[in-house]
Design brief:
Number of helices: 1
Radius of gyration: 22 Å
CATH architecture of one domain: Beta Barrel
Number of strands: 35
Strand content: 35-45%
CATH topology of one domain: Lipocalin
Strand order of the largest sheet: 3-8-9-10-11
Length: about 400
Amino acid sequence: MRFLTRLLLLGTASGLMGMIAGCGLFGGDDDVLPPKKLIKFEATLPVKKIWSAKLGKGSEFLRVGLSPAGDGKRIYAASRNGLVSAFNPETGKRIWRVEVDVLLSAGPGTGENYVVVAGSDGDLICLAANDGREVWRININGESLARPLIRNDSVVVQTIDGKLQVFSVFDGKKLWSIEQSAPRLTLRGTSSPVIVGTTVVAGFDNGRLVGTSLSSGVTQWEAMLSPPSGRSDLDRLSDVDGSVVVVGQDIYAAGYQGKLAAVASESGRIIWARDISTHVGVAVDFANVYSIDESGEVIALLRRNGSEVWRQDALLRREPTSPVAFDNAVAIGDFEGYVHLFSNIDGRPVARIRVGKGLLSGAPVVIGGRLYVQSESGVLEAYAVRRPERKRDAPDIATEET
């Protein structure tokens, strides 16, 4: 699989090369199936580009956690080379742009009138949302690939070494930190923490989903989504790296070489689970849960019990991103910069757009009913569904009887 060439080893480089070589991941072209070719279809969902803006340089195919965010007033986005911008969501006009002088790896996160980005060398930088002014900058001694989460005057940050840390949004003072054991070999990536009430929920590279009190840092529950199994380090990969989604009091998450599950937020009890291995996580709408298995097949399950609704194999081996529910479809990016939209009813393709000519920096994001996509070519684009207005029939003119 193509994405396995982007592994992160928490050990020796020689050990990584030996394990990968032993699995044939760098074998000849005859050993690797090509990405599935795109097929032509008649688009039935009228997705139109609203605006486009230039951000800055991409990450040169290094998997990072850069994707747009919004707070209802502005759309924020950051480039790999350290440019952070705010845009008018209606017009795409740039409101401000600042250069933070570090290589960025995650963000922006936004809330409480602040914007926070993370750098590859451990920099965590807080900016004022209204003008981009730097408020504080600290070093957290670890790379983050997860969007920072801002809630209740706190900034929640997860790093690739298995640490979940919380800082004051006002001055960057550390409030608390917890750590989960990290296996010797993991996939490069980290799921972004989410909030349920007063609980921070985060997935870790040991296959666990953990609920922790935002105020105290006390762990309230743990749920095992992806128990390590097998003899080799590759066989025992069990990361919870993809998107975690909260709907009401239910949490939906999935792990690599593990399960996709619905989890009760108050206890960590698994409500239902299905054997689906994924590194991209899940998306949820009013009826379904969507994910993509390790081969690239898109799968839709019923939210209430996990029963399968449909499957779609159009993205096999195309390195699909995390899915996102958009209008009456589910949107998924790929390694060539295409965003594919599939019907949420039956999985048939309904639209396809292209942003730039390369890998997407992160998964497409829906903010305020619009789809935002950031590409490795340094472009941010906004899309909306523009259905034609229905013509209203002329009213009948009643005639009075004479």
